Amino acid sequence: MGYKEVVLSQDAGVAILKLNRPSRLNALSAGLLDDIGDALDVVLKDDAVRCVVITGEGRGFCAGADLAGGGPAGTAPEPELPRSTRLEPFARFGRMVTLLRNTTKPTIAAVNGLAVGAGLSLSLLCDIRIAAADARFSAIFVKRGLVADTGCTYLLPRTVGVAKALEMMYTGDMVSAEEALRVGLVSQVVPPDKLLPTALELARRIATGPSVSIELMKRMVYQGLEADNFVASTAFEGFAQNVAHTTADAKEGVKSFLEKREANFKGK
User: Fold this and answer.
1) Model's pTM, two decimal places?
2) Model confidence pLDDT, tens digit, residues 101-134
3) Phi/psi at 199 (5° precision)
4) Taking the CB of the first residue and of the last residue of the chain, which one, N or C, has fewer CB atoms within 10 A?
């Protein structure tokens, strides 16, 4: 499938989705949102993909909705959209949110430059965020007289805590990469030229792991956070452990331990 506003590549079990509107700092136009949704729909269904890295081309990760391009694309259902997309909250934005939120595949945001508004939300939809030292983050919605959206009001408080999230949403202030690291918004800050190599190194390590176990753990963590129920979480752990025990990777894990060598997992 050809894409106009994203570049999709795949290597060693890792899919790299690069937003490709550098002249607009990868602001989310209708075309870019459609390409993101189409690309995600492909890679998230591909069993060969074990981890997904999302980044931006040029000087920015994502500058949010493309307001200069005619308004926040996709905020209302449009007749030309497929029915399934029209029924998503926020239409095109909702399709992106649903695909990323519902996938059990590990996701990493490699944040270069600005991640503001819906671009901040896009980074929050990923499991792990790694930032370049010159990255900046903002829940900028309030400076446009709007409210935080694209999942921001749900995800940001669960990432940085309620007080910091509300401070960011009330003020729309820019947050530096170092401050983002301090408050837990990102897990690493690296020099700009090391950003993608660092993200890919981590993604490849994840991709060579026992993918059934990894995807079960992702599911357990997110469902556990939403349920907030210790008994339910431990019950899910018991179910998931029984599933993991049946995999070839679990047998390989035990065998490699007994043979004192690194395990060679196959994702089966």
Assistant:
1) 0.93
2) 999 999 999 999 999 999 999 999 999 999 999 9
3) -65, -40
4) N
Our count of domains for the chain comes to 2
Number of Cβ within 10 Å of residue 196's Cβ equals 19
Residue 249, CB half-sphere, CA atoms under 13 Å: how many? 14
**Cβ contact 56:112 at 8 Å:** yes
The pair of three-digit structure tokens given for residue 9, joined into one six-digit string: 């590549």
Helical H runs in the chain?
Answer: 30-43, 83-86, 92-102, 118-124, 152-160, 162-171, 177-183, 195-207, 211-227, 230-245, 248-258
Same domain, 157 and 238: no
Burial classification of residue 262, based on how many CB atoms lie within 10 Å of its CB (0-12 exposed, 13-18 middle, 19 or more buried): exposed
Determine the straight-line distance between the first and last CA of the chain, rounded to whole angstroms.
28
Q: Which two tokens stand for residue 205?
A: 């390590």
Question: Do residues 156 and 169 lie in contact, with contact meaning Cβ atoms separated by under 8 Å?
Answer: yes
236/102 Cα distance (integer angstroms): 17
176 part of a folded domain: yes
Does 184 share its domain with 254?
no
Residue pLDDT, tens place only, 127-149:
999 999 999 999 999 999 999 99
DSSP string, 159-226: HH-HHHHHHHHHH---EEHHHHHHHTS-SEEE-GGGHHHHHHHHHHHHHTS-HHHHHHHHHHHHHHHH
How far from 265 is each of 13, 205, 207, CA to CA, in Å? Answer: 12, 11, 10
